[in-house]
Amino acid sequence: MSNLNIRPLHDRVIIERLDESVTPGGILIPANASEKPQRGKVVAAGLGKYENGVLQKLDVKVGDQVLFGKYSGTEVKVNGKDLLVMREEDIMCVLEG
To answer: How far apart are CA 89 and CA 81, in angstroms?
Structure first.
């Protein structure tokens, strides 16, 4: 997503949901029957937030795949893409490997 014209501030991140319409067993789930995925990829991240005058950098970085809460973030549309803007604290974990 090289043409992303948005820069999150402070401890906010921009997340693109990852498609989870196929189960691990290969079953296709219709879009109207599936819930929105709770897994996504970080496409932009702020610099961090200041606590007591010291910048606390984010633990996540662009490219990380993350899990987040079902109702986390605010949905926005940028350049025709549906994205989520959320605070880093709304991210539950980073998927590794």
So the answer is: 23
